[in-house]
Amino acid sequence: MPVNVKHWLGRHGINAADLVVEQLQLDSRKVGTGDVFLAIAGVQQHGGQFIAQAIEQGAALVLTDQGNYHDSRVLVLPQLTQQLPKLVADFYGQPATKLKSIGITGTNGKSSIAFFINQLAELLSIDAAVIGTLGYGYYQKLTELPNTTPHFVELQRILAGFVKQQVQLVAMEVSSHALVQQRVDGLQFDVAVFTNLTRDHLDYHGSMAAYGAAKALLFEKNKSNSAVVNVSDEFGRSLAQGCISPLRVYGTAAACVGFERFLAYSDVIALPDGCRFRLSSEQGDFSLRLPLFGEFNIQNVLAAIAALHQLGYPLPELIKAATGLTAVPGRMEQFVFPHHVVAVVDYAHTPDALQQALQALRAHCDGHLWCVFGCGGDRDKGKRPLMGQLAELYADHIIITADNPRSEDVIAICDDIAAGMSPDGNYSIEPDRKTAIKLALVSAQDGDIVLVAGKGHETIQIVGAEQRQYDERGYMRQLVAEMSI
C-alpha cells in the first residue's frame, strides 16, 4: 500500500521529503528498500542503535525521537512516541475504524474465546478473523506470531490486511504485557472481555495486584466502548462493579445476581461428548448443549456469545449457533485410543488452568484420571509446587516431565513440582516428555483419561537456547496410529 510520506507526515505538521513508501518497520532486520524505519525505545534496547543498518538495507526514511544525525533520511521528532499510534493508524488508513473489534484479556481462556467468536461469526455468515497466541487470520488458517499481542505497528498492518480481505470482525487476545508496554495504543475496541485472574507472569508483574491492574487497563474509556466481564471470578466481579462502560456480565447464576444484563449458567450435566446446561439472561431462559468438555468452556462460550451480543447480534441466533462449536486446537482436544483410553491435550500451564482441566475431566472419567505435565524453566518458580499439589489432589496417577526447561535443569524443575506433593504420593518423574506420555498411555486402562498439559498447540520445545521441533498434537496422532496396529 504505497503512501506518500510528505502528505502522510504533513497532516501531522511534520515536514518530510516527497517519498512514496511501502511499509513501516520496527525491526531493522526486516527493513527493505523504500521502507520507513521507526527507531524508538523497545523493552530492552533503543532502535537508534540500528539506524545505520536500516539505511544500509534501503530505508527511505528513519523516524526517531533522540540523537543528532547529519543525514536527511533521519528525522528526529522528540514527541515521536506520543505521536506514533496516530501516525501509524493514518499510514495504514485507520483500518480499526472499518472493523468491529473485540479485545480479550485475562489469565486463561483468551484463545478459546477468540476462536469461539470466529466460529460463531462463521456460523452466522460473518467474515471474521483472530489475532493471538495461535497466530492471526481466519481461525482455520493462521499465520504465526512471535507474541500473543503484536506491537501496534504490526497490528495496524495486520488490520489493514483484514480490511483488504473484507473481514468484518476481529477478535484479539490482549495480554497484560501488551497493555503495560502500550502495544495496543491507538486502538479503540468495540468490546473488551475479561476472563479471569489467576497466578501467572509474576516474574514480570511482581505481584497479583500489579497483574490485575495491567488487565484492567483494557477497560478504560480510551481503550474500549463496552465490556463483557466474568463475575464468577473475584477480580472480575470487582472490575464489573467499577465499570462505567455499557456492561454485560457472565458466570454462574448466583454470581450474576444484581446485574441488569447477564448470561448465567446453572444445572450443568456432564455428557460423554460434552455438556448440557440452563442458560439464563434478561431476555429469558434457554437450554444449551455444547460438544465441549469443562465448565470453563461453558464460561468461554458465554463470553463469546456475550461479546457478539454486545455488537448487536441476536441472542437466540448466537445460542443456536453455539451448538455447532468445536474444540480449539490444543485446548481440551481429544484423542481416542483403541484400548478405550482418551488422551486430552490442553495448554494448561498455570495452577488454575491445571485444576480446571482436571476437575472438568473427572466428571467425564469412568476410570482413573492421569496427568502428565511439567513447568517452564526461567519462569515463575513459585507456581511449581502449587501445580504439583493440585495434580495430586485431582488426578489418580501423575507423571512429572519436561515442559520448556530453557536454561534450567529438567530434573531440578521436576523436583520443584514434586515438593508440593506427598513424599509417598502416586507420582513418578520421567524427564523425556514423549516417553512420559507414552508411558501413561501404555499404563492406562479401559475407561481412563490421560491429560497431557502445558504444551497444547505449541510446535517447539525450548531446551537451553535451542528451539526443538515438538508437536504434541502430531505426536498424539502418531501414537493413535501406532497403537491401532
Automatic annotation (TrEMBL):
<comment type="pathway">
    <text>Cell wall biogenesis; peptidoglycan biosynthesis.</text>
</comment>
<keyword id="KW-0132">Cell division</keyword>
<dbReference type="InterPro" id="IPR000713">
    <property type="entry name" value="Mur_ligase_N"/>
</dbReference>
<feature type="binding site">
    <location>
        <position position="147"/>
    </location>
    <ligand>
        <name>UDP-N-acetyl-alpha-D-muramoyl-L-alanyl-D-glutamate</name>
    </ligand>
</feature>
<dbReference type="InterPro" id="IPR013221">
    <property type="entry name" value="Mur_ligase_cen"/>
</dbReference>
<dbReference type="Pfam" id="PF02875">
    <property type="entry name" value="Mur_ligase_C"/>
</dbReference>
<keyword id="KW-0547">Nucleotide-binding</keyword>
<comment type="similarity">
    <text>Belongs to the MurCDEF family. MurE subfamily.</text>
</comment>
<feature type="binding site">
    <location>
        <begin position="148"/>
        <end position="149"/>
    </location>
    <ligand>
        <name>UDP-N-acetyl-alpha-D-muramoyl-L-alanyl-D-glutamate</name>
    </ligand>
</feature>
<dbReference type="Pfam" id="PF08245">
    <property type="entry name" value="Mur_ligase_M"/>
</dbReference>
<dbReference type="InterPro" id="IPR036615">
    <property type="entry name" value="Mur_ligase_C_dom_sf"/>
</dbReference>
<feature type="binding site">
    <location>
        <position position="458"/>
    </location>
    <ligand>
        <name>meso-2,6-diaminopimelate</name>
    </ligand>
</feature>
<dbReference type="GO" id="GO:0008765">
    <property type="term" value="F:UDP-N-acetylmuramoylalanyl-D-glutamate-2,6-diaminopimelate ligase activity"/>
</dbReference>
<dbReference type="InterPro" id="IPR004101">
    <property type="entry name" value="Mur_ligase_C"/>
</dbReference>
<dbReference type="InterPro" id="IPR005761">
    <property type="entry name" value="UDP-N-AcMur-Glu-dNH2Pim_ligase"/>
</dbReference>
<keyword id="KW-0460">Magnesium</keyword>
<keyword id="KW-0133">Cell shape</keyword>
<feature type="short sequence motif" description="Meso-diaminopimelate recognition motif">
    <location>
        <begin position="403"/>
        <end position="406"/>
    </location>
</feature>
<feature type="domain" description="Mur ligase central">
    <location>
        <begin position="104"/>
        <end position="307"/>
    </location>
</feature>
<feature type="binding site">
    <location>
        <position position="26"/>
    </location>
    <ligand>
        <name>UDP-N-acetyl-alpha-D-muramoyl-L-alanyl-D-glutamate</name>
    </ligand>
</feature>
<feature type="domain" description="Mur ligase C-terminal">
    <location>
        <begin position="330"/>
        <end position="456"/>
    </location>
</feature>
<feature type="binding site">
    <location>
        <begin position="403"/>
        <end position="406"/>
    </location>
    <ligand>
        <name>meso-2,6-diaminopimelate</name>
    </ligand>
</feature>
<feature type="binding site">
    <location>
        <position position="175"/>
    </location>
    <ligand>
        <name>UDP-N-acetyl-alpha-D-muramoyl-L-alanyl-D-glutamate</name>
    </ligand>
</feature>
<keyword id="KW-0573">Peptidoglycan synthesis</keyword>
<dbReference type="Pfam" id="PF01225">
    <property type="entry name" value="Mur_ligase"/>
</dbReference>
<feature type="binding site">
    <location>
        <position position="183"/>
    </location>
    <ligand>
        <name>UDP-N-acetyl-alpha-D-muramoyl-L-alanyl-D-glutamate</name>
    </ligand>
</feature>
<dbReference type="InterPro" id="IPR036565">
    <property type="entry name" value="Mur-like_cat_sf"/>
</dbReference>
<comment type="function">
    <text>Catalyzes the addition of meso-diaminopimelic acid to the nucleotide precursor UDP-N-acetylmuramoyl-L-alanyl-D-glutamate (UMAG) in the biosynthesis of bacterial cell-wall peptidoglycan.</text>
</comment>
<feature type="binding site">
    <location>
        <position position="28"/>
    </location>
    <ligand>
        <name>UDP-N-acetyl-alpha-D-muramoyl-L-alanyl-D-glutamate</name>
    </ligand>
</feature>
<feature type="binding site">
    <location>
        <begin position="106"/>
        <end position="112"/>
    </location>
    <ligand>
        <name>ATP</name>
    </ligand>
</feature>
<feature type="binding site">
    <location>
        <position position="454"/>
    </location>
    <ligand>
        <name>meso-2,6-diaminopimelate</name>
    </ligand>
</feature>
<feature type="domain" description="Mur ligase N-terminal catalytic">
    <location>
        <begin position="22"/>
        <end position="68"/>
    </location>
</feature>
<dbReference type="InterPro" id="IPR035911">
    <property type="entry name" value="MurE/MurF_N"/>
</dbReference>
<keyword id="KW-0131">Cell cycle</keyword>
<protein>
    <recommendedName>
        <fullName>UDP-N-acetylmuramoyl-L-alanyl-D-glutamate--2,6-diaminopimelate ligase</fullName>
        <ecNumber>6.3.2.13</ecNumber>
    </recommendedName>
</protein>
<keyword id="KW-0436">Ligase</keyword>
<keyword id="KW-0961">Cell wall biogenesis/degradation</keyword>
<feature type="binding site">
    <location>
        <position position="379"/>
    </location>
    <ligand>
        <name>meso-2,6-diaminopimelate</name>
    </ligand>
</feature>
<keyword id="KW-0963">Cytoplasm</keyword>
<keyword id="KW-0067">ATP-binding</keyword>
<feature type="modified residue" description="N6-carboxylysine">
    <location>
        <position position="215"/>
    </location>
</feature>
<feature type="binding site">
    <location>
        <position position="181"/>
    </location>
    <ligand>
        <name>UDP-N-acetyl-alpha-D-muramoyl-L-alanyl-D-glutamate</name>
    </ligand>
</feature>
